[in-house]
Amino acid sequence: MDDLDAKLVQDKWVETMDLVAAKQEAARYGKSLWTAFVKLGYLSEEDIAIFFSSLSNIPYVKVSDYETD
């Protein structure tokens, strides 16, 4: 298990079995692990953005929550 995998499980974003299933799905269809998470419904695209923003210490901002002039 690499560092990102461990962090996903440790921080309870996914269960270990979900991670294994997503890796199998990604390998089977030649897609990224992140695409497999979304396809299988384990994580949303927003969840993935929040996960990476927390790792990089960059605040996550949902742009659709703001109005522009």
Topology diagram in text:
Layout (H helix, E strand, L loop, with lengths): L2 H8 L5 H14 L3 H8 L4 H12 L13
Helix pairs in contact: 2-3
Description of the molecule:
Helix 2 (16-29) packs across helix 3. Helix content is 61%, strand content 0%. By secondary structure, it is mostly helical.
Q: What sort of overall outline do the alpha carbons produce when their principal axes are compared?
A: globular
Tell me the series of helices and strands, N- to C-terminal: HHHH
Q: Helix/strand-derived class?
A: mainly alpha
What is the residue-averaged pLDDT? 94
Global Rg? 14 Å
Number of helices: 4
- As residue ranges, the low-confidence spans are none
Tally the beta strands.
0
| Distance, first to last CA | 46 Å
Q: Quick one: biggest sheet? A: none
Output the keywords.
single chain, 69 residues, mainly alpha, 4 helices
Q: In a nutshell, what does this entry contain?
A:
The protein has 69 residues and is an all-alpha fold.
